[in-house]
Amino acid sequence: MVTLCMTLEELKQLEDFFANAAPQQVPIYLNEATIITNYKHFLESHFLPLRLNPDAKVNAPLIHRLKLLKLLIESNA
């Protein structure tokens, strides 16, 4: 189940995770339709809208992809 919104504290925790994680080698395949070819750009493009409006429902796919990437990084650690 994907959380549709994110608190500022959850956003901070997620940002901290990626700030402390080593940059990942690309391409990264989150699923058949989502391929990350620029790791830094992916993070910036996902965190900017969340910082501006973390509880907007339209940001749910961003949250979902960030959480998937986090799980992938953790599973490969």
From TrEMBL:
<protein>
    <recommendedName>
        <fullName>DUF6965 domain-containing protein</fullName>
    </recommendedName>
</protein>
<dbReference type="Pfam" id="PF22292">
    <property type="entry name" value="DUF6965"/>
</dbReference>
<dbReference type="InterPro" id="IPR054238">
    <property type="entry name" value="DUF6965"/>
</dbReference>
<feature type="domain" description="DUF6965">
    <location>
        <begin position="9"/>
        <end position="75"/>
    </location>
</feature>
